[in-house]
Design a protein that fits this description.
This protein starts with a helix and ends with a helix. It is built from four helices and two strands, in the order αβααβα. Helix content is 61%, strand content 4%.
Length: 90
Amino acid sequence: YAASKAAAYSLTQAIRHELGQQGTVVLSVHPGPVDTDMAKSIGVSDADPPSVVAQAIIKALELGEPHVFPDSRAQQIGREYKHFAKQVVE
């Protein structure tokens, strides 16, 4: 699972660069537990509603943010990632 997520993220970074040259916006969306049937089936009961994902994508497009951490748990990870990205990636 982790390897497939890392591969998807790497692909997103590559196509963001390539498609960005023609003006296409590519976002990487990193949700945590969201209130879906899948989350319920594994016992998650306190997840944010799916609407937070759509709202976060719209906000990211408006702000020009390439990474979307839509729900409250993902936002915690997003803050840590931002620090890592500034120190290591950038």
